[in-house]
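Ticket #4471: structure output looks truncated?

Reporter: J.K.
Steps to reproduce: submitted the chain below (490 residues) through the standard prediction queue, then opened the result file.
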Amino acid sequence: MSTHSRPKHTPLVADTQLRPGALKLPALLMQAISHIAPAVGLVLTIQFITSLAGVTSPLAYAVAVLIVLTLGISLTQLAKHLPSAGGYYTYISHTVHPRAGFLTAWLYLLYDPTATAINIAFMGYFFEKTMQAQFHIWCPWWLFVIVVTLVLTVIVYRGITPSAEAVVFLGGAEIAIVMALSIFGLLHPGPGGINLAPYLPSRAPSMRGLYLGVVFSIFSVTGYDGVVPLAEESENPRANLPRAIMGSILCTGAFYLFCSWAVLVGWGTHNIGAFVQSAENPCFVLARRLWGRGWILILIAVLNSILAVAIASTNAATRVFFALGRAGVLPQSLSRVHPRYLTPANAIWLQTILTLAVGLGLGFWIGPDQEFYFMGVAITLGLVLIYGISNWGVYRFYRGERRGEFRVWPHLICPLFSTAALIWVGVASIVPLPDAPLRYAPVLVGVWILAGLMLLWFMRRQGKEGWLLKAGEAAHERPATLPETSRKSM
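Returned output as attached by the reporter:
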């Protein structure tokens, strides 16, 4: 079928076994936003960031957003030309080398496949402590993990459309509730009134404190890439994925900048010491002062955020498993698609098992709260490598295959700047080494990389690297209105 015969405004979709064209731009945008988890990112990190950067914690978030914007710009340069459920696996295989793509996929297994587990386990811990303190009800964290895992498995298994609808509802609710608290904080400011001190560098307790605040804020704003593996189920993926990536960073960036400032103003910028030292989450304390019993809405917002990020992470992870199975990297049974729901059924079951194994296993071993922080450091280090290699791929891609499209800002400056920032974040995360068990997170990443290299060496010795040739293939596209019979004849 000639592209010249296609009506000018006919949307394109991937030619895939999954449900092509199911996700339009709004759903993709909410998938990316929910993967960032703004309510959790703000409510559960602002006290820690403020302990480092003092009243200027909103400024730390602002600098972090600027750095992440450069990462997003680099990613969109690959997303618009290489739509695939493989995500970074496809991007790096195509632009750097298939073996680098495999190692990226190997590192990715420390990211989204475990992100669901650690988020649910931490939320189970948080929920257990909150219910005990506020209502004297015992709800063990492990039961929370099991119930939530089963619920999200049902949602994801039954199709990408129900998953997207759940993400839109949950993500919208979390943002609306935290925004409402922020607005009430401005309407009823604490000691110090409404002021711009949180954005004045001179008000930082020290430049090192502000610097560390930026370091630990950056990965509160990441997660925008969770939309990339849904390329094959998206309408016009080459256009809509870059829009969703940049839109999610801008939207959540605005959310962090406004809400962090408004929460501190609501608490009182002249009383930051009490904010940092509060034994109870200060967002809960502020909500109880402003809303009374309505403070429970903030707990609901955090629960919504966790469930939304769990769905978004599961969607992303299972699509990567599907792509790796299709390419032959993992067992081909993972590429099996449910005949009715058009979801990667076996990949979803694998993800369910991993979520329960990691969430419960690490939780019982080192505690669900320490599990979150331990894997958080490991994921951070893994993402530094993934994003850094991806940035190198952007430069190579546009200096080689797409040389005619090369532009200095998106293809050189942004990759170079964001890579330097990533190295800065990685070093600051582990120097000096934190206390145990967090100090062992770099060891986990090192051992994981070594295992991946050994697996590559073994496959090469056995002459079983044929699947690498498929690694850089992007999905083919077709008009959304093309009949099935015509498509099969192409």
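Triage note (M.O.): checked the attachment and the full token line is present. The mean pLDDT is 87.
Status: closed, working as intended.
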